[in-house]
Automatic annotation (TrEMBL):
GO aspect biological process, one term: translation
Gene: rplJ
Signal peptide residues on this chain, from the entry's feature table: none
Keywords, comma-separated and alphabetical: Ribonucleoprotein, Ribosomal protein, RNA-binding, rRNA-binding
Entry similarity comment: Belongs to the universal ribosomal protein uL10 family.
NCBIfam families, per database record: PRK00099.1-1 (NF000955)
Subunit structure comment from the entry: Part of the ribosomal stalk of the 50S ribosomal subunit. The N-terminus interacts with L11 and the large rRNA to form the base of the stalk. The C-terminus forms an elongated spine to which L12 dimers bind in a sequential fashion forming a multimeric L10(L12)X complex.
Protein name: Large ribosomal subunit protein uL10
Gene Ontology annotations for the cellular component aspect, listed alphabetically: large ribosomal subunit
GO terms for MF: large ribosomal subunit rRNA binding; structural constituent of ribosome
Organism classification: Bacteria, Bacillati, Bacillota, Clostridia, Lachnospirales
Tree of life domain: Bacteria
UniProt key word rRNA-binding: yes
Function: Forms part of the ribosomal stalk, playing a central role in the interaction of the ribosome with GTP-bound translation factors.
Amino acid sequence: MAKVELKQPVVQAIAEDVKDATSVVLVDYRGLTVAEDTEMRKQLREAGVVYKVCKNTMMKRAFEGTDFAALDEHLEGPSAIAISKDDATAPARILCKFAKNAKALELKAGVVEGTLYDADALNELAKIPSREELLSKLLGSLQSPITNLARVLNQIAEKGGADACEAAPAAEEAAEAPAAE
């Protein structure tokens, strides 16, 4: 069997992984201990991110004709790819957070939703919260006024209703002013 025939399934597997991906991040993994690598892979897997160590030539072939072809210039030295199909910022967020503790891990570049980012831009992108966090913050902001209104109405009801509540001083003065005229 020719070497090309042996490499073709690997290229196909990479191409299949990146086909519907929203983001791909390249990292240099040299110097990571086995424990660090295992922990990083676990965190990525829990977030639904595919992490693979592949040959650069195989990745170049798999990236041909896609948005990820922009990563070709960064494919030097040992490279691994983190691929996400759901959360576009997940690979950058997890890898940047992990790189703070594991100094050997170096981010090279990434393509997020069709845009090429260098390592510095990926660090900034990693600061963006996940979609779920943003939705929960939005929901909390929307519920806050309603919750406060419900508390006020509940306090009025506990005091015996609107008749038992004291009128505001400004309202009393306004009510007395027309009567005095």
